[in-house]
Amino acid sequence: MNEHDLAKKITQHLDYGTSELDGRVQFRLQAARQHALEAYAKPHHNFSLAWGGHGGRSGHHRSHSPFRAWLPLAVLLLGLMFITYWQTTEQMNDISEIDAHLLAEELPFHAFIDTGFDTWLKGSSEE
Q1: Domain total for the chain?
Q2: How far is CA 68 from CA 47, 48, 55, 57, 73, in A?
Q3: Which of 42, 46, 40 is nearest to 59 (CA)?
Q4: Residue 51, pLDDT score
Q5: How far apart (Å, rounded) are the C-alpha atoms in residues 63 and 61?
Q6: Angle (CA) 17 20 25, round 5°
Q7: Which end of the chain has the least Cβ crowding within 10 Å, N or C?
Q8: CA 79 to centroid of chain Cα atoms
Q9: Does any domain span residue 5?
Q10: Chain centroid offset of residue 91 CA
Q11: Which residues contact 27 (CB under 8 A, 6 or more apart)?
Q12: Residues 6 or more apart from 71 whose CB is under 8 A from it?
């Protein structure tokens, strides 16, 4: 039995059940069905954050705390602080590596290209 045959049998069974109902009940069921279809056809735009378990519905029951609204901002700030710390540490390591090469008289190739290094050499030779 395929999906189409199953749907046809279910429809026949439901039609049989509704044919024995009172006319007023059938009218109310038809009106409720029409109302449900109209409500389903209307797009609902909800511009709120969707938290896990809520599905983005804006209802009267707000079980999440205000802390959860600030959590993404806090994570972003901590990430930026970590990146800044990491870049500063890397820069300090690069400077100390160049100083060590200067003391050992083993200069890397990029030291000769650096204009600041050339200025430093001229200034140190004048002293």
Answers
A1: 2
A2: 17, 13, 15, 16, 10
A3: 46
A4: 58
A5: 6
A6: 95
A7: C
A8: 15
A9: yes
A10: 31
A11: none
A12: none
Q: Write the DSSP string, 41-97.
A: HS-----S---TTTTT---S---S-THHHHHHHHHHHHHHHHHHHHHHHHHHHHHHH
Token code pair at residue 60 = 């009267």
- Asked whether the beta carbons of 14 and 29 are under 8 A apart, the reply is no
pLDDT band at 37 (very low <50, low <70, confident <90, very high): confident
The two tokens of residue 89 are: 């540490």
Contact criterion met (CB below 8 Å) for 108 and 102: no
* 48 inside domain: no
Residue 13, in any domain of the structure: yes
Q: What is the rounded distance in angstroms from the CA atom of residue 123 to the CA atom of residue 104?
A: 20
Matching residue, tokens 């200067």: 102
Query: The domain containing residue 88 runs over which residues?
Result: 82-127
**pLDDT tens, residue by residue, 63-80:** 556 777 788 888 999 999
Answer whether residue 72 is part of any domain: no
